[in-house]
Amino acid sequence: MDILAGMLAYLAGIGVIFGGLALSLLLFTATPKQPLTPQSPVATAMRFAPSAAAKTRDAQANAKAHRLTFRKERQTRAASAEAA
Predict the structure, then answer these.
(1) Got the DSSP string for 4-46?
(2) What pTM value is reported for the model?
(3) For residues 58 and 6, what is the distance between their CA atoms, to the nearest angstrom?
(4) pLDDT at residue 52 above 90?
C-alpha cells in the first residue's frame, strides 16, 4: 500500500508538470499575432506624455476649485456659529 501511494503521488506530480506546460503553451499561442495599432500617433503621444502646460493648467483649475469649496465651507461654518 505504501508503494501504491508513492506511485500515485509521483504520477500526480508528473501530471501537474505536464498540465502547467500545456497551460503555458495555450497562453503563449493565444496572444495576438499583430500588435494593436493606435488611432493616431498624436493620440498615443498625448496618452503617454501630456504636455507640461496641460498639467499646469489642470493643477491651477483644481486648486481654484478647492479654494472656492474651502471658502464656502468656512462661510457656512461661520454662519452656523453665529446662529448658535
Answers:
(1) HHHHHHHHHHHHHHHHHHHHHHHHHHTS-SSPPPPS-HHHHHH
(2) 0.38
(3) 66
(4) no
